[in-house]
Amino acid sequence: MVHLILVSHHPALAQALVELAAQVSADPATIHTAAGIDDADNPIGTDAVRIMNAIDAADNPDGILILVDLGSAILSAQTALDLVDPDVAARCRIAAAPFVEGALSAAVAAASGADLVTVAREAEGALLAKQLALGVTTPVLATAAVPAGEAATITLTNPHGLHARPAARLVAALAPFAASLTLVKDGQSADPRSLNQLTALQARQGDSLTLYADGADSAAALAAFRDLAAANFGDSTTETPNLPTAPISAALYHDHPPVIPADLRADRAAFTAAVDAWRAHLGDLRKYTSARYGDDAGDIFAAQQQLLDELAANTLARAENETVAAWRAETAAAIEQFAAIRDPYLRARVLDFADLADGVLASLAHLPPPPYPEDSPFILATARLYPSAAAVLPDNCVAVILDEDDSHSHSAILCRHAARPLLSGINTGAPDGTVLTLNPQPQEQP
């Protein structure tokens, strides 16, 4: 099985990506890291000796794919290949691939038993999904005549379509079969053993997908496809079925979030400590929500940890000398980029970036979490609810009122997991303590 080495300037970034890629890998032990340098004052960088040691640990007959995060990591990786035995170097390849997406695509391809050339090709084509989501390019998918062989057609029921995790499950399920396989949607065809091509199909809930199989194992491959589709590709078709339907009456309570000082400043060490503290907090939230609502809820904060590490690494690489200014600029750019996406589900990730932006600054300023009433039931009124706050709302918070619609956000998903109604567009000008009666799920009138 092909091994992967993740070469990053930041150890936390590499480790977070290992955890993410491990979710789609058949053997997480095949994913290695070589990140950071031995300099307590400035640990950001890459070390050829560390990469060389990782190559020695990862060496195997099937080969090694090396993925790098920033330009100077390429030079370090090339230097490391000059240091190892030439026979070992011949089994290695440095991928010209996006770091995060490339690692995930490579992990899926390697898990399917693909050779080094195929794993590298999958990694190097992994940017297509992001380009499609942002309308940057046009997918290069076949539009040929109907493929040969037997066929099976299903209707996709996954609420958010064939996104990364269900697509990875499909790749893994079809990998063992010797048949020639083609997946078709709306006249476009893709290789169902390629995560990149599956993503390029942009299959959404309600889409019709047809798998064509020709040759040996055709019947078995089609049966596996039908079985996986019947199981919603491993995803749940509903987030929470148990929202209350009866009217809710409780006292109104307006949110009082901490105010982050406009003149907040920090050196690199203080900023890094604040990032580490918020990362640890996200880890606690992941454990708490996973234990209370299941792994799907906990994965929200696993994803936030990954975003945090990317944003922090980018911040430290920016030209701004002052880290708080650089952090604000970096997170503002991410928010602007996602706010322009048409897909409402992806656009709602803006709230995750804002949550991270303010979370690190609140940690840096040592601001306490907002207070809530401790005993009696209350309805929370707030301009916006961050996922990190939604996860820990007390049980006596019986509903949330937002100024604007937020139904696609992770905050809304967490509220649904907690069977806590979240409503928007309601006049909250009444003072705290005003008793409100809400109908969370109004019935249709005959």
UniProtKB/TrEMBL annotation:
- What GO molecular function terms would the record report? phosphoenolpyruvate-glycerone phosphotransferase activity
The UniProt catalytic activity note for this protein reads: dihydroxyacetone + phosphoenolpyruvate = dihydroxyacetone phosphate + pyruvate
This entry's Enzyme Commission designation comes to 2.7.1.121
Which processes are annotated in GO (biological process)? glycerol catabolic process; phosphoenolpyruvate-dependent sugar phosphotransferase system
Q: Ranges for the PTS EIIA type-4 domain?
A: 1-134
What this chain does, per the record?
A: Component of the dihydroxyacetone kinase complex, which is responsible for the phosphoenolpyruvate (PEP)-dependent phosphorylation of dihydroxyacetone. DhaM serves as the phosphoryl donor. Is phosphorylated by phosphoenolpyruvate in an EI- and HPr-dependent reaction, and a phosphorelay system on histidine residues finally leads to phosphoryl transfer to DhaL and dihydroxyacetone.
Protein name from the UniProt record: phosphoenolpyruvate--glycerone phosphotransferase
> What organism is listed for this UniProt entry?
Cardiobacterium valvarum
